Amino acid sequence: MQSFWCGFQSFLVLLPLVLPTAVSAHEQFTVARNEIGGVTIKMNGQPFATYVIDQGNKPFLWPVLGPDGKQMTRSFPMQDVPGETQDHYHHRGVNFGHQGMGGTDTWTEDGTWGDNPKRADQKARVGQISHDRYLTLTGGGTATVDTVGTALTRDGKPLLEVAQRFDFSCEAENRVIDIAVDLVASHGAIELDDMKDAGLSIRVPESIRVDSKLGGEIVNSEGRRNADAWAKRANWVDYHGPIDGQTYGIAFMSHPSTFRHPSPWHVRTYGLFTANPFGLKSLGLQQESAAISLKANDRLSLRYRLLFHRGDEQQADIPGAFKAYAAVKPASPGQ
């Protein structure tokens, strides 16, 4: 395992030297199982993202490479990079989790709490989202990774089916990941608590986070910026800033068909970037709890887009990009 990661890290160092600065007019995607059971997605022979299933307590995407081969997620805790913050051990790449699934926490993980006896009760609630199987792995003009997993209690009791579909594509120089998450009560009725820490997340690179004070900025579709964008509903939020001397950004979009659109955003100046439609009371948007009671076989559907771009939200025309996204019907897991 160590030799694999050492080789992979060395490969990442070379990426900016070999990836093209402009997207080919004829993108070709490949999807391949790797030696540790995950999946590597490439575009024109160069890495785009890796779906990881053997670390932490849930599947996640890492690394994710944007325009010009720039890494668009923080590396910790998968890799130690000098100068990166190492807070929030559970903020791994792009992932879905929820701190209150029938009383079980799939947001944090054991490494979050360590051996602190004062956190023993919280650690005892930590469960997992397993990767059970792939439904579809396809390449070509786009790429699809379609998966099924299960939310489990700490002792392995199944709570909820978690189906996730990732569609990878390019639009001009932008790289795009459409993410569909279906929560299916296939193991019986369950309650999803009103929690601040829940939803689909990406942890942004060190240099673009606002608190690094290098020029990073958050802006949403309503014009709110930085800390003022936290816990606000918006069609989209853009998090951009400098990477290797140039501006790059991550636009996170809430599709009109998604549950509780427009999504509230748990987006932080320290680098967490989450679409959270679950915690309306916890985020201060209403007085009453927004906990969700799913009956047996009920389905809750989430639909989002991550668009990785050059420049800020205006230079990348994120308002126009959202308009185009809102006009399409997102694919669903298992289609």
Could you describe the 3D structure shown?
There is one protein chain. The protein has 335 residues and is mainly beta. It is 10% helix and 37% strand. It contains 4 helices and 18 strands. It has helices spanning 2-18, 110-113, 120-124, 318-326; strands at residues 29-33, 39-43, 46-52, 60-64, 94-98, 128-138, 143-152, 158-171, 174-184, 190-192, 198-203, 217-220, 236-243, 246-254, 265-267, 272-275, 292-294, 299-310. An 8-stranded antiparallel sheet has the order 6-7-8-9-18-14-13-12, covered by helices on one side. The protein has a 4-stranded antiparallel sheet with strand order 1-2-3-4, with no helix packed on it. Strands 5-11-16-15 form a 4-stranded antiparallel sheet, with no helix packed on it.
Summed up, what is this model?
This protein is mostly beta strands and 335 residues long. The protein contains four helices and 18 strands. It has one domain (27-326): Beta-galactosidase, Chain A, domain 5.
CATH class: Mainly Beta
CATH architecture: Distorted Sandwich
Strand order of the largest sheet: 6-7-8-9-18-14-13-12
Proportion in helices = 10-25%
Q: Proportion of β residues?
A: 35-45%
Order of helices and strands: HEEEEEHHEEEEEEEEEEEEEH
Mean pLDDT: 93
